[in-house]
Amino acid sequence: MMPIDFCSAGKVYNDWEVGKMKGFLRKGKKGIVFLLLAVLLCIALAGCGKQTGGKSKAAVKVNPDGFPIVDKTLKLKIVTMQTPVQKDFNDMVILKDYEKKSNIDVDWVCIPQEFVAERRNIMMASAEELPDAFFKMQFPATDISKYSKQGLILPLSDLIDQYAPNVRAAFKKWPDVEKGLTMPDGKIYSLGYILGAPAITSGPKLFFNSEALRKVNKEVPTTLDAFVDVLKAFKDLDYNENGKADEVPLTCSDYGGLEGILKGSFGLGTRGSAHGNVDVDPDTSELRFIPTSEGYKQLLQFMHMLYQEHLLDQEIFTMDMPKLIAKGEEGRALCYAFVNHSVIGTKYSEKSVGLEAPLKGPNGDLLWNNSGPALSGFGHFVITKKNPNPEATMRWEDYWYSDDGMREYFMGVKDKTYYVDDNGNYEYTDYVMKNPDGIMFEQVLGAYVPWAGGANPSIAGDKYFKGGEMQPITKASADKLYEYRPKTIWPGFVWEDKDTDDMASIATDLSTYINENRALFVTGKKSFDEWDDYVKGFDNMRLDHYMKVYKDAAKRYGFKG
User: Fold this and answer.
1) What is the pTM for the complete model shown?
2) Residue 144 falls within a domain, yes or no?
3) Sheet containing 133-135, strands listed edge to edge, beginning at the edge strand earlier in sequence
4) How far apart are the first and last CA of the chain?
5) Closest CA to 253 of 204, 220, 211, 302
6) pLDDT tens, 504-518?
């Protein structure tokens, strides 16, 4: 793979040179470091990409619908994230085609994915050198709040009402998306990535090796008790026939993924997966801190039992993706959790079968907690104060939320990267999936479409999105689990500015404490006789304040408790 480069006034710096510059700059005083980085960034903005010939001095007339968006060619400078599999956005096929029909000529400034946060911050600090807009640049909520108050980014609410009918239609279809994008001041300053299909909003799911199930004469379990019976049978099965007892009945790339799947069996996670530690207690209708609840204690006790009986991967707290893939390819992972079934490799992935319903827990709970909101983050499209034509820019962006725009964004060019089969399904061509030059499909698509790397200001639906979540085995399970999702699913919350630093600090302390203790409880290094002491340990961590702020935020999203 070629090194990831960035340019400055025509000079291309490789990774090593970038590292040397960073190291040199760090040695100076902070003010000098910041100044030099800002200058470097300003030069890069001037020297990278195509030359626009200057920005328009006055707003242009925007056609109300259809194409072109403007009659006289409009030039915009837009900064975007670029992944290693993508070509320069200035050369990307669908973007060049869109320029022709929209009459909006975009000078794309591409930022390598690993530099996004750093370069984004520098650009915002050099306020006089801002581009017209940012695309896929992943502004966090705290930054959106800060920059909106500084006047560096524009409010979008009125622009959406007047120039973005497709965005407005998406808000109507998914009201929580609009809620999730709305800042505490009641305004929207950014657009986000909308997940418009059950399979995409579902988090990690549980998959079983169907051949192993047949060998032990078991069905896909529907209860926790039946689940344990299956895992015990897997433990005694030499599935890969290597004469070793090396099968792993249950595994995952990280422990948290399993908790997310099983929380609902203990009545936890009643507001979806975006809120891992807080939900609403169905008995009291009050906010509940999950890690101190009786249900969470029962969950940890269940996981401890699995661990002690070697039904749960003994490496679960040091697992990662490479280890999961290796165990899958070796035929050792007989039940595993991931967002899709194909992560364990082609030899065994098609032998996978997923849950058809959540595992019924000890109290009869049937809840698929691992369901996320339709809004998958925000800060993926913002318009800056330097843009003299925000109206045209909003119409330009609105296209990616239309049916035609989504098709082009995710599928590319008809008869080249996709085709429509006899049943009306959109599928990638052999040029993409079986490229004659042996190029992996992500790289093929990277020359045509911008969706790689996430953070897409568009809508991923089951019609055009063809990621791993949409593979038939995975989608079949997700679609069945969908009916068991919580009735109310909250998007991620945005804190008031005055609370942001406190909440970040407290959340870090809470997370560290929870993660350390759950590992101790599950592995048996800490007895459940010490549970009360564990709960008491939160007393010195400002949990009361954390929950008060949480409750205030929840009320802004409609919580009545």
Assistant:
1) 0.82
2) yes
3) 104-112, 74-82, 133-135, 381-383
4) 54
5) 204
6) 999 999 999 999 999
